[in-house]
Structure formats: C-alpha cells, structure tokens
Inverse folding.
C-alpha cells in the first residue's frame, strides 16, 4: 500500500457515512482511519459528523420540553445503524408509532432498512412518544436521534 | 392441517419410512418396529392419507404406499437432510399468508436457531416495502429461516447477502449462470429466479433474531407476461425434486452462515464477483434518487455509485440498470 492508496481511502471515508475504517492486508499491514469529531461540543458517544445539525435541534427540543417540568425524563432513541428510516411496514400502511401515543417494551417504533435488511427498532421501555425526529423514507446516520420519548 | 416437527424419529415419519421401502408392510410388523399399537398405526396411516399419501390397505398382507404428494413436509425432508442445525425444527402449512410473519411469531416465542417455516403457497407473500411475491402453489420454495447470531447490531448488514449467496452457489452447482442484483435478488439472463427479504428484530444494541425469507422459483413452467421471471426447471428444461433442492439450499445457507459469523469480507467479495450491477449505468429510486455507474460494493455491503459529481454510498433503494434507449436520448 502506498501513500496514494491511503489518500484514496481517506477520500472514500470522508465521502461515506462511515466514521471508522479498518484495513488489514495479507502482509499484515494495518490501517485504521477515524473521522474527527467537531470539537465545539463534546460528543456523547460515537456521534457521526453528519448528525451534528440534528443533535443541535434535539438539544433545543430537550430544552423546550423540559421547561415546564424540569424533572420530567426525556430519552432519545437513536439509530443503531446506518440506513433508510421508515415509519410504516409498507408505503400505504399505518405508521408503527405516532407522536402522543404510548409504546410498550417490545413495540416496533420504526424500520431502518439497510440493503434490504429490514431492521425493526423496538421500544426498550414504556414511554410516550413526544417527538419523531427523523423523516420517513430518508437516510439516517449511525446514532442519529429518531424519537424523543418520555418515560411513563 | 399444519405440521410442526422437531424430531425425525416421530411415529408418522417412521411409518412413512417403512412404507417407502416399496413393499407391502403388515400392520403387525409396523406396530413392532415403531413400538405402538396396531390401532395407532391405523390412525397414522389415515393422517398420512389426509396429507395426500395414497396408501392401499390389503386385508391379508397390510399397507402399501402407492404415491406420495409433492409437498415439502418435514417427513419428506428428513431423508434428504444434510445440515447440522438448519431444518431441525420445521413448521409446515399448506397456505401461510407470509412465512416471514409466521417465523417472526415463532422467533418471538423462542424458536431455536435453524428453525424453518415452509409453505406450499403464501396468500400474502411479500417483498421489500410490502410488495407482493407470487407463490404459485407447490411450484417453488417459500422458506423462512430463523437465525440468532451473536453480533452487534451495527455489523448486521452482511446477513442480508446470506440468502443470495446460497441461491447463487446452488444455481452455479446446477450450471445456471445466475448473478446477484444488489443487494440480494438473483437473476438469470435478466429474469428473476429468487427474491430474498431479511428482517431483523433488534434488542438494544444487539441483533435479537433475524428472519431470512427466501422465495425460489423451482418448477414453474410459465409466469404472467408482465413478470420477468424464470425458474430452475425452465432453465434446466426438466422438473426438479423440491425437497432435494431445499436440502441442498440449506447446506449452503448453513455453511455461509457459519463463515459469516467469523468474518464477512469473503461474502462481500462473492457479491462483487457475481454482481449484475457493477460496471453498469444504474438508476436508484426510492429514498435517494440518483444516476451513475455502479462502481463497487463497500466492505459494509453498501453500493458505491459514481455520479458526475462524487462517489455516493447507497444503503437502500431500488436499483435498476439504465435501459440503453434512455441513454441514447441524452
């Protein structure tokens, strides 16, 4: 592997949705590339650069939501993988979850599709959906906030 | 009547095995060999008849099997089985609205890895985003397989290629020039022979279970004019034993799954080498809309498309090869 290959890889990583790239060739040469975080705010967990704008709006939302009752507990459900966000099992079907409804543990919240692998994302606790943060049919990044839930 | 079988040694299977030797077997002999009363034998014979087995009863000599139905019953499958775990538990019914939905239900109730759901036909067989999948009765294989890989969710995507790998290997074994249309449709000379829909149910950051749904056209002799499809039998110009096809397909599924649990790079390489799309001008619709050249399949399985501006990573959507006519217009 020469410098040009590395440059290409950096470019590839930069243009991709990935935040980490690890390679190993047959000669035992190892390369590990990671995208830098934008440093103004310390990221909570491994947050992808592309999701920054959404994080900001989530913070705003959180601020707004918590105003009337500072003790109220709001939790964000984030995307466990990269893919396309779908709110319903089929285009003409009812969405799994709507704002205002209460979901039970195990209830499906949405599907994230990656390469025709349909990933059902389920609720891990009983909660009321305060806000749906992602748009139906649109790509989502790893760790991008999808739902704002209030524990009930 | 639905059948759920965990055991290749169950009474009905044993009786069927004795009858399958091609000779008349007396009720008494069967009763001794299987270890149940003659009355119990008679009951099982009637059950088999209800399932479509033609069994003659001769008062003096006993029972004789005249014909067996073309069905993917568990007891038809056992003698062909070559897998270690896959197909150890089989749920069969003639018409299951969707084998994937049934498998989801069984998986949630705790069904073990390798459990398969089989239907002769599906009234609501579905593909991506709720699209219909045609399940001509007893012509194809309509299968859903339950997997429980111990893997973080973020690394789940290569499992979507497992079904495509198995069908591809099997087609090549038969000498059929199959190719994979990313992510996992199998085409032969531009006609679809198999469709796969993989559904994953996540628990937190882990893969809970995966249901791999696979439809394979086996003995169809024709398709509606508006469906560009083919079958194994149309390609080979002879009918095939579906139960044999199933057993061989499961071998590739099991072998591929074991390797995939160790490492996924080899599978991405297989997908690259047998891709219908790579190097072609393609159009992507649904979610992202773009046109460009399908350049490569990334190690995480995404399709890389070169547009005039940049290299785009596609995770989901409908990808089709751009027809030549359209190109000329430009």
């Amino acid at each position: 592997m020469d410098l040009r290959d590395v440059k290409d890889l950096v470019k590839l990583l930069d243009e991709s949705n990935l935040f980490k790239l690890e390679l190993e060739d047959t000669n035992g040469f190892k390369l590990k590339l990671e995208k830098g975080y934008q440093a103004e705010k310390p990221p909570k967990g491994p947050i992808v650069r592309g999701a920054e704008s959404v994080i900001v709006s989530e913070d705003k939302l959180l601020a707004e939501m918590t105003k009337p009752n500072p003790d109220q507990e709001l939790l964000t459900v984030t995307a466990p993988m990269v893919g396309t966000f779908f709110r319903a099992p089929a285009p003409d079907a009812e969405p799994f979850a709507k704002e205002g409804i209460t979901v039970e543990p195990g209830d499906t919240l949405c599907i994230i599709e990656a390469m025709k692998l349909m990933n059902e994302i389920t609720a891990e606790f009983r909660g009321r959906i305060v806000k749906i943060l992602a748009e139906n049919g649109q790509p989502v990044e790893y760790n991008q906030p999808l739902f704002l839930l209030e524990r009930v | 009547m639905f059948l759920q079988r965990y055991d290749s040694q169950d009474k009905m299977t044993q009786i069927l095995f004795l009858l399958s030797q091609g000779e008349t077997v007396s009720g008494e002999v069967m009763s001794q060999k299987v270890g149940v009363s003659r009355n119990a034998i008679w009951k099982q014979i009637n059950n088999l008849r209800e399932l479509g087995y033609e069994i003659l009863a001769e008062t003096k000599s006993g029972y004789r099997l005249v014909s067996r139905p073309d069905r993917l019953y568990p007891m038809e499958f056992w003698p062909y089985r070559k897998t270690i775990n896959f197909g150890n538990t089989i749920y069969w019914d003639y018409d299951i609205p969707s084998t994937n939905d049934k498998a989801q239900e069984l998986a949630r109730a705790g069904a073990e890895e390798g459990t398969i759901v089989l239907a002769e036909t599906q009234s609501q067989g579905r593909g991506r985003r709720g699209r219909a999948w045609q399940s001509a009765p007893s012509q194809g294989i309509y299968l859903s397989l339950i997997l429980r890989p111990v893997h973080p969710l973020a690394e789940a995507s290569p499992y979507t290629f497992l079904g495509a790998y198995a069908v591809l290997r099997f087609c090549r074994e038969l000498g059929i020039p199959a190719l994979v249309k990313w992510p996992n449709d199998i085409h032969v000379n531009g006609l679809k022979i198999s469709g796969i829909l993989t559904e994953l149910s996540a628990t937190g950051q882990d893969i809970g279970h995966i249901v791999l749904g696979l439809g394979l056209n086996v003995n169809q002799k024709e398709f509606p004019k508006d469906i560009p499809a083919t079958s194994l039998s149309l390609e080979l110009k002879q009918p095939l034993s579906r139960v044999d096809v199933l057993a061989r397909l499961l071998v590739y599924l099991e072998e591929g799954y074991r390797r995939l649990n160790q490492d996924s790079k080899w599978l991405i390489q297989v997908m690259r080498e047998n891709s219908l799309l790579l190097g072609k001008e393609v159009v992507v619709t649904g979610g992202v809309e773009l046109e460009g050249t399908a350049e490569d399949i990334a190690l995480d399985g995404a399709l890389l498309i070169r547009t005039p501006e940049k290299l785009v990573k596609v995770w989901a959507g409908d990808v089709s090869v751009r027809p030549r006519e359209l190109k000329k217009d430009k």
User: Anything to note?
Assistant: Residues 325-330 of chain B have pLDDT under 50 and may be disordered. Residues 242-262 of chain B form the longest helix (21 residues). The radius of gyration of chain B is 22 Å.
